[in-house]
Specification:
globular; binds zinc ion
């Protein structure tokens, strides 16, 4: 029975806007009958933090896909990014991560600073709940793909059918997932740090924070389950202003404030929803890295902010 919170699917291309297709010079996906092929741009010099645009309807989407698929990250690249991160030996395993989703040449090192936190205990993870915003499709609620697995150069990561049975009101939409990169860009990292985990990939459309938080609650689980939230921070501000805005946003995230808007993070809805769940569960947040495309590989005139955060369970800590 359909969840009354979810309106009929309305797939709309976003109106062209200088402020939109955002940071994605990233991955494209090809959805086969049962396997979603994850692509990821590995750092072509001609690409900028906002140079990637989705193909127009009816255009040669397959040709563009092939181009991007050729630039998928290699296992070596993922390993190199993770190996560059030093994690304190006494740090506990995080329950959740918030990571950016631009091309690996831009935000890969920032994302790696979070994923490296899962390296020690990740082999024990059986489930990763992955949420990110919809950049191209406008719809109400959240969406799962209609595939059984995500495929990348690192292999195949199964979609968690058991977990999906826990959230029966969530729609399955191939179209929404086919257009979206914010989740699949995370998959190669997850395959490396959580090799035995199955994925619960949720694209978040128009939704209230509590709706996202309620679904995360259903999937919360124990130490076998981790949550990953995919979002970049500010978009297309000059370097210094972008930094100031992102620092303020970071402080809000560390305080688990749920009032973020789309100016602060393209994934404001999933981030705010996650932060609401984190509040309910009294998670403790730490900032791992905060940079922008201007620090890494882009022009300082218009930068995209990238933050990495880890969230830890606190119930076992002595007050
Ligand atoms: Zn984004």
């Amino acid at each position: 029975m359909p969840d009354p919170d979810f309106a009929p699917e309305q797939l709309e291309k976003e109106a062209p806007s200088a402020k939109r297709p955002a940071e994605q010079q990233g991955p494209r996906s090809r959805v086969a009958t049962a396997v979603k092929t994850s692509g990821y741009e590995g750092g072509s010099a001609k690409l900028s933090p906002d140079s990637w645009k989705p193909p127009a309807p009816g255009k040669d989407a397959v040709g563009e896909l092939e181009e991007f698929l050729k630039k998928r990250p290699s296992p070596q690249e993922v390993g190199r990014l993770l190996a560059a991160v030093q994690v304190p030996l006494d740090e506990p395993a995080p329950k959740a991560l918030l990571v950016p989703h631009a091309g690996y040449a831009y935000s890969g090192p920032v994302a790696a600073s979070a994923y490296a936190r899962l390296l020690r205990g990740g082999a024990n993870l059986s489930r990763v709940v992955l949420i990110g915003p919809s950049h191209h499709a406008s719809f109400h609620g959240l969406a799962l793909p209609d595939t059984e697995a995500f495929e990348t150069p690192l292999g195949t990561m199964p979609v968690d059918a058991e977990a999906i049975a826990l959230i029966p009101g969530v729609r399955r939409s191939e179209a929404i997932h086919r257009a979206e990169h914010s989740l699949e860009v995370q998959v190669p990292f997850l395959q490396r740090v959580a090799p035995h985990a199955a994925l619960v990939p949720l694209v978040v459309g128009q939704a209230a924070g509590f709706q996202v938080a309620d679904i995360l609650e259903l999937l919360w689980g124990g130490p076998e389950t981790a949550i990953v939230v995919s979002s970049d921070l500010s978009h297309y501000l000059p370097y210094r202003l972008g930094r100031a805005v992102d620092e303020e946003t970071s402080r809000m995230i560390l305080r688990l404030e749920t009032s973020l808007d789309g100016e602060r993070a393209c994934g404001a809805v999933p981030v705010a929803g996650f932060l609401e769940a984190a509040r309910r569960r009294r998670l403790r947040a730490t900032l791992l890295d905060l940079r922008s495309s201007g620090d890494i590989a882009g022009s300082p005139e218009e930068v995209v902010g990238y933050g990495a955060f880890a969230f830890f369970e606190t119930r076992d800590e002595t007050p």
